[in-house]
Amino acid sequence: MDFDRLAHDEEDTFIDSRTSLLDIVEDKIRAQNKKNLVHRTVILSKLQQDVQEKDEISGYYDRLFKNALNSLQGEPVSGLLLIYPEYCLHIVELRCDRGVRGVSRRRPSSSSDMLVLLFKDLLENERKKTGFMEKSRILVISHDIPTRSYSGWNSRVLDIQSQNIALYEPSDSTDKLIVDVLNQLLKLGNFLSKTPKLNFKNTLDTLREKVPEFIPQQLVVGYLAETDDQCMTNLDDITKIYSNPFDFTMQGELVWPLPVRLFPYN
Question: Which of 242, 20, 233 is nearest to 111 (CA)?
Answer without folding.
Answer: 242
